[in-house]
Amino acid sequence: MTREEAEQLDAADPLAFARERFILPENLIYLDGNSLGALPRAVPAMLADTAERQWGDDLIGSWNKHGWIDWPTRVAAKLSPIVGAQTHELLIADSTSVCLFKLLGAAAHARPQRKTILTQQRNFPTDLYVAQGLAEMMGLQLKAVPADEVIGAIDADTAAVTLVHVDYRSASIHDMRAVNAAAHAEGALTVWDLSHSAGAIAIDLDGTACDLAVGCGYKYLNGGPGAPAFLFVADRLQNDLQSPLQGWMGHADPFAFEDDYRPARAINRFLTGTPSILGLAALEAGLDTFADVSMRDVEAKARILSQIFIDEVEMRCGAEVRLESPRDPRERASHVVFAHADAYAVMQALIDRNVIGDFRAPTLMRFGFAPLYNTHAQVVAAAEILADILIARSWDQPRFKDRAKVT
Amino acid sequence: MTREEAEQLDAADPLAFARERFILPENLIYLDGNSLGALPRAVPAMLADTAERQWGDDLIGSWNKHGWIDWPTRVAAKLSPIVGAQTHELLIADSTSVCLFKLLGAAAHARPQRKTILTQQRNFPTDLYVAQGLAEMMGLQLKAVPADEVIGAIDADTAAVTLVHVDYRSASIHDMRAVNAAAHAEGALTVWDLSHSAGAIAIDLDGTACDLAVGCGYKYLNGGPGAPAFLFVADRLQNDLQSPLQGWMGHADPFAFEDDYRPARAINRFLTGTPSILGLAALEAGLDTFADVSMRDVEAKARILSQIFIDEVEMRCGAEVRLESPRDPRERASHVVFAHADAYAVMQALIDRNVIGDFRAPTLMRFGFAPLYNTHAQVVAAAEILADILIARSWDQPRFKDRAKVT
């Protein structure tokens, strides 16, 4: 594909209007929105207003006057069309890891006779660590099987099945509906991590009968570095589940300052401490970048961009790299992984040419395509630059091999 | 005391320089810095820089370029003189409730043969809720005794003693040194909550042999609404304790993406998910309001301000209210509580006159004195206005009795 052909696709892109919602450096091809979403144009004013006018002028009264107390649910409601859930099934809170701990703990507590949390091998690491810590604390077994054996491994001892919806390396997608059905047939609950799918592909939590889910605010949702996470609890389960992380914001009457915990009705019982108002302000601006956006269009563009990248890279330098993502676009979310023996140095050489992806040890280069702001022309240009670096071996320099960087 | 006499004290105040570090509405007497600290003047620029220059321009590279990865420890180090700990014993993370869960869980895990978490009755509610949830999860007993019976109740079954350092109602102070010594004599660990003392009075965590502590970032530390919390783990314990909330940021090598959790050495193992960078930015500005401030001066001013308030209120209208804080200033931190049968309406009438304190059901009015920005003249003026409202019974109006407000 020529850059001109790509520009024609950009001109016809039904999501082109969304690009103006971001501030991005000129001449940068940013293909790492799956790690940290770009800065929404509305964020600086939102932060200034929250800090100066609300906190500064109205101080403690802002909890009432500006409705801070309701922000965890009000902002979460904006996720409803993005993840296919009812507004009252969603909450913004804590970090993804802490939210996962709460929901996995609640699921295990709801199945007290069952002793197994089931997951896949090579699930996202922090999800494994959370489950390992919880399992040790509650005297449970964490069982990790190959991804394609999860459904078959669900049995009468399975309290919960927890999986990342989209694999952080390959972008392969679990079949939510099938896993939920298999889990429910055995009486188990499902806990999904949507970190690499929310905002990238269409999700239907209610339609596929998900029980519980968590997700990250700072990737495709553009909520800023370390943004608060979100959690989902299906309506039908809310009043039966109990969070192990009980704090005053999840109490039925937080300002009664009672000695004994009484969980709030519905989703609020999954709050713990005081929510980060500045974090919520930025995340709200992030979620607003999805206003009037169809997730079907997002998913379609995600697949077109990733397919163009695969095709253009393989056509130009297929022998140099090996695709580690599914070749069928229906099995992929919105990022693509190629393996190369010197992936770290190649990625540094790309960054040096203003193409930003990321490296995952030992051999993976990961490229994320954010449908709201990445263009077809950028994807073709990135493939050209990658091919240029690989064919000229310009990555093979000491300055690209310094491993001091942490991400 | 006349307002003129108070102004003379302000002129001689060794902390007067710090007041310029805040933006406060004119004509407002803000006596609620114990609930939400005032806006530091540096916050708006700090947020703008973090959002626009760092996140916006440098995107994912900011984790290296701007050292975001180290902010939880770098910012925490600024707490060192405020709480009397070594810099490497401190960490910024999560909310106070979540931090307390981690440290209580770690303490209980370190004393596996012991089944009791000891606390006081009417401890801060969220601390009780956290401990109740943890105790249920780990099969422990939470035992709450009257505050003055805690030391006598520590025994060989006590895994951990957890107390708020300063009572959120009365401002009475626990004797840290005595509780730590009694706990250690029985082999128990101590977990302190400094939410109502950090930034208000001098604290010596190391000098009094504290084991573990948590505290709030948004009260006297001025970190903004829902600021991240802090935690302290004594140097001698760090590598033996294990957080129950295991996440990737607490892993020995987060970017190796290993399947199995290996805790980081030292304080970093108490991190869980990705830290809130915007929250850290604001909290850093909050901690910077303590630069070149002596905590001895802070404590001395806290006691003078609270004593002036007590004296002036009782002199003017002692029969109308009842002091619920210790009368001896050495037994008080930096807030004062008066009881009144119609406390809610009185507080609303005060707010209507631009004096901001808070109400704690059913009968308490709480007034916090932030030594960095409250003045002696404000305290005298607040006492005059309170007396005026009480003597004239101007609180006795329907508009002051509407209970719609949440805080």
TrEMBL record, chains A, B:
Keywords: Hydrolase, Pyridine nucleotide biosynthesis, Pyridoxal phosphate. Pathway: Amino-acid degradation; L-kynurenine degradation; L-alanine and anthranilate from L-kynurenine: step 1/1; Cofactor biosynthesis; NAD(+) biosynthesis; quinolinate from L-kynurenine: step 2/3. Its EC number is 3.7.1.3. Pfam families: KYNU_C. Its cofactor is pyridoxal 5'-phosphate. It catalyses: 3-hydroxy-L-kynurenine + H2O = 3-hydroxyanthranilate + L-alanine + H(+); L-kynurenine + H2O = anthranilate + L-alanine + H(+). GO terms for molecular function: kynureninase activity. NCBIfam families: kynureninase (TIGR01814). Belongs to the kynureninase family. Catalyzes the cleavage of L-kynurenine (L-Kyn) and L-3-hydroxykynurenine (L-3OHKyn) into anthranilic acid (AA) and 3-hydroxyanthranilic acid (3-OHAA), respectively. Homodimer. This is Kynureninase. It comes from Sphingomonas hankyongi. The gene is kynU.
